[in-house]
Amino acid sequence: MTLRKDDKIVIVGAGCFGVSTAYHLLERGYTDVTILDRSNVLPAPDAASNDINRIVRSSYDDKFYTLLARQAIASWKDQEKWGDSYHESGVLVLGLSDTPYADEAYKNDVSLGASVRTLRDSDAIRSVFPAQVQTGTFADSAGFLNHDGGWANAGQGLARLIDHVKKLNGKFLPGTRVANLCRDSNGRTTGVQTADGSVLDASLVIIASGSWTASTFSELELGHICLATGQSVAMVQLTESEAEKYRNCPVVFDFVSGFYVFPPNEKNIVKVAIHAAGYTYFKDADTKVSTPRTITSDPENGLLIPKPMLKALREELRKIYPELAEKPFIGTRLCWYNDTPDGHWVIGRYPGDASLVIATGGSGHAYKFLPVIGRLVADLVEDKLEPEVVEKLAVNKKRTTADGSRSGEVVQLHLQDLYSPEDLQAV
């Protein structure tokens, strides 16, 4: 399919995939790009790509992502474009020799020229932290410190890219829910119909709606490759003096447990999470597709996480920063990912419909690629994407391997399992 530069393009979703795609298309000279989002406010308060921080790492067991991440990191360093969104604290990867994922990630980082320091024992691991920081023992652990990485203020980075898209004359329609795809008699997508009955015609529709994809577009039957999962996150508030002790710590990511922890942000908040299989949520017994349950759909309890995860987060934090584990959590969030079975993204034309592109399936590791992920979608649109990448990310690709970076099994969320306020206190 060949598009003219003035053809109408509609993108559904103003998160990482959608905004980055809009930016790269506009940069290439496309002049009629419209981004729709269900949220009245952008970035959407409950979007996975809108958070206080996200890890920026190149440490992947797949060299495709390692190389792309290094390209993204090079862009993140452009302060004219991103301001101070990116913080190069370094990323401490734990699990070397204990997990195949960490071993392959180490090899890929080294082979592509990352600044890596190997840490073969507990003393070496402790040495990467400031002397004033009390850490766990890291007994029988090994890892590596990748200096070429750190974390990004996710909400800020996304907001800046939205501004860049606007400056390129990209059009945003916040508060617009898509009800249906419009199709002609041959099954070709011709636009979208919104919840108020309006129709937006388009030569190309790009679905980039994240964890809402499978439930919003049920007619596409994407449930076998798109699963909305809730991931448990908690925050600890430090005083200014406490934060200064931890300010120069690296991001820590343990591939054995999936636990990760950030240095304090500008508000002296430390965020912790576990990169796990997560929770599914079904609104009722008849619902067959997992749907995000967020602060938007449940303003009172939409941020709460299951009590067992609250305990697990504290136990894992104690292994890294024992002193911080004794402090109360000030809040939590159930952050909703759009997971694929193998952890690879879905960037491809919908089978049998060249006018419909799917760009989603972030699987908890897309945000760091915000500067470059839209380039892949733009290349696909222009039929410039390398054949092996087309095959890797195709909608109808057979996905037989599991995501090696994740721990545990998917569990169904039951509301009675959510914690009570008193559970936020250290025990």
From TrEMBL:
Species for this entry: Agrocybe pediades
Key words, A-Z: FAD, Flavoprotein, Oxidoreductase
The keyword Oxidoreductase is annotated on this UniProt entry: yes
InterPro entries from the UniProt entry: FAD-dep_OxRdtase (IPR006076), FAD/NAD-bd_sf (IPR036188), MTOX (IPR045170)
Native organism taxonomy: Eukaryota, Fungi, Dikarya, Basidiomycota, Agaricomycotina
Protein name listed in UniProt: FAD dependent oxidoreductase domain-containing protein
Ranges for domain FAD dependent oxidoreductase: 8-380
Names of required cofactors: FAD
Chaperone in keyword set: no
